What we know:
Elements lengths: L3 E8 L3 H10 L1 H4 L15 E4 L6 E5 L5 E11 L3 E6 L10 E10 L2 E9 L16 H24 L3
Antiparallel strand pairs: 1-7, 2-3, 3-4, 4-5, 5-6, 6-7
Helix pairs in contact: 1-3
Amino acid sequence: MSSRVLVALRIEAPPARVFEAFTAEIGQWWRPNGLFQPTRQTDGRLSIEPGVDGRLLETHADGSVDEIGRIRAWEPPHGLAFTWRPTSFAPDQQTEVLVRFEPADGITRVVVEHHGWDAIPQAHAARHGIELFTFQQRLAEWWQDLLASLGSHTATPD
């Protein structure tokens, strides 16, 4: 098994609402990070096409669109899985993100597992020359920030 980053956060909303916010509203809560940019452009907004084989897209201000990944599993409101492929990756390179939405005492525990960075060479632009353990610590911190943003977004009244 490949190395993984594992992050979890409780969000005060039912799983169906959190799944909807994660997928249909990703462009509203996803926060860019200079270290983990999926493309060379910094003005992108993410979106997810629902269902298995749907695409994870980044749309830029100039109208260009980059595919960042593909949906591998789509199980509302329980979870989804998708590949994560920054545009700097070679065709045979990818990582995978698994997201679970678990009911827990009237709220939702969101669990994110990001696998596969050990297959991306340390010298690769996406790894920034950072040793794997340190890279994964920073990646985990980013996922924590993203889930906190998801939680804030989900708690905001419509």
